[in-house]
User: What shape does this take?
Amino acid sequence: MKKILIANRGEIALRVMRTCKEMGIKTVAVFSEADRMSPHVHYADEAVCIGPAPSNQSYLLGNKIIEVAKSLGVDGIHPGYGFLSENADFSQAVADAGLIFIGPRPHAIRVMGSKLAAKEAAFKYNIPLVPGTKEAISSVTEAKIIAAGIGYPILIKASAGGGGKGMRIVESEADFEEQMDRAVSEATNAFGDGSVFIEKYVSSPRHIEIQVLADAHGNVIHLFERECSVQRRHQKVIEEAPSVVLTPELRDAMGKCACDVARSCDYLGAGTCEFIFDEQNNFYFLEMNTRLQVEHPVTELITGVDLVRQQILIARGLPLTLKQEDLKINGHAIQLRVYAEDPTNNFLPSIGNLFTYRAPKGVGIRVDDGYEEGMDIPIYYDPMIAKLITYGKDRTEALARMLRAIDEYEIDGPSTTLSFGRFAFRHEAFVSGNFDTHFVKKHFSPELIEQGSEEEAKIAAMLVAHLLENRLKKPVLQQTNSTVISRGSKWKNRAK
Ligand code: ADP
Ligand code: ADP
Ligand code: MG
Assistant: This one.
């Protein structure tokens, strides 16, 4: 492969291009009219505008992207995550055009794209599954009998679901029909497929997932786990590797299951098997994501493996040179997704202009971002600004670096999840490792962030008063003055 087109935008497009550059591979960016000034467009060797801002007129136009690839002599297409990455027809169309899709074959995408088909495939390999229905609900009466058998609360889930959408908790039989109607209509709107099924609602669950790599020669390995229990709207916001709760035995057992799930669909490339982990240390397979995951950097930091490089080598047809027995966990990595969202307002998107944007630097810090100071965060796409990842010899060191990095991060304009991160990484539950997917619901409330910033505002006021006092006494030193001004912008960022 000499030239790769990246069918994506923002941080993940840049992330993929960086590895391509290291491998001596030329890159082609595609972009929408809203992304003309984006770093991923400047970074690429060639860039082509493929349409207006809405993704269904640009980043989702598979055929147009394939045309661009053919006209520029591209050999392979990397889909990143989101957009066309889990679209089996796109994977097929890329192959039909004589190009290489850097990802799994259409069959695996199709099977794992349906949570029901995925469970059926995993069941044949004796993978533990969450108790529930094996088929889509066709009769409400029957479904209620099954739900009563499992015991409330239960979860109604969209088979085609993703990104935390199409999921409804049902507390008791009286709510069943209403919640089911909602789940069906949400699933129909979001995924064009209203099939839903029932799962037992695991109480106090942790989300633990396993990274796998499978080559075209039958080799399948896993690169340990990522814990992604800190979520809002069933969507991850903090991830780490390794998980504080896994013993080597559990890690090994889950790893073997994940490799079997990959075998069950004849997987190719990098993929992730997601599990739910309960208080009794039972784990149950949830689904497989047939793409590079948002949180893949934490795995890269603890294993030293560049997952994008592995994806490209596998797509070229090369056998894996990594052996399971050679892989080891070194140190600890934590990721905070820096979203343009307001944690004090239900994590609702808070987009706008990045008046100030300065990423943290220094030892143990990796920032994967897709914006620069002065840019607007468009309303058309996922509002993630950056991923802040820190690494240390152990969890304590990674956490200390995370807090320093959040402190150094300067963002003015949109509200961001940095303030939530500062809260979470200092919280006793997170620090001790005693948390589950209800961390936000159990421990977080907007006042906790506002309290923090009130204290900081008090300190700021004190500093200013002190400065003014000094100013009256003697001529002000230029340096002191400018220090205070630059700190001021940071306090503004911390307010939300
Ligand atoms: P990850 O498991 O990689 O953390 P997320 O659930 O956070 O994944 O989603 C990653 C990206 O993929 C987001 O941009 C999300 O909107 C998108 N995404 C996930 N699942 C789907 C789906 N079924 N359909 C469309 N987009 C999806
Ligand atoms: P998606 O395709 O939207 O990512 P998942 O099946 O991976 O859907 O579930 C997303 C999140 O929802 C999980 O990480 C977990 O927090 C929660 N969840 C899913 N299934 C269950 C369950 N059976 N019991 C409790 N929580 C669940
Ligand atoms: Mg999931």
Remarks:
- Residues 475-496 have pLDDT under 50 and may be disordered.
- The longest helix spans residues 446-473.
